[in-house]
Amino acid sequence: MRILGLDVGTKTIGIAVSDELGWTAQGIETFRRKEDDPAADINYIVNLANEYKVGSIVVGLPKNMNGTIGPSGVACQQFAENVKEHVECPVILWDERLTTVAAERMLISADVSRKKRKQVIDKMAAVIILQGYLDSKSN
């Protein structure tokens, strides 16, 4: 069964999905959040979960380097709780420390332009979050 991976930010949500066997993560898109309608963000994710028939959803949890949770982490926890109220599958929080940095480095090493990096960075971070989760389950 597929797993949906999310990199939730204040303006965008990076979205990735696993293959049927749960071995690899592929980026789907970077969704632009609706500032004036937070329920639309939740509905979009719920619809994606239904479309891909996911068995669980992994939400990246940004922690500080010392392991504490700051304001963005609290916002991601709240987002995950809101999603959990609308789906029948588990919603898992996954430590996402340095995923955006790793995504940026990967895109720079692939010689992706700054403008293009900005468009795909959140999607790549979602792939890294989801792949980290998938790898942990296979070990």
TrEMBL record:
The gene is ruvX. Residues 1-103 form the YqgF/RNase H-like domain. The keyword Endoplasmic reticulum does not apply. This is Putative pre-16S rRNA nuclease. InterPro entries: RNaseH-like_sf, YqgF, YqgF/RNaseH-like_dom, YqgF/RNaseH-like_dom_sf. Keywords: Cytoplasm, Hydrolase, Nuclease, Ribosome biogenesis. Belongs to the YqgF HJR family. Could be a nuclease involved in processing of the 5'-end of pre-16S rRNA. It comes from Alkalihalobacterium chitinilyticum. It is found in: Cytoplasm. Its EC number is 3.1.-.-. PANTHER family: POLYNUCLEOTIDYL TRANSFERASE, RIBONUCLEASE H-LIKE SUPERFAMILY PROTEIN. NCBIfam families: RNAse_H_YqgF.
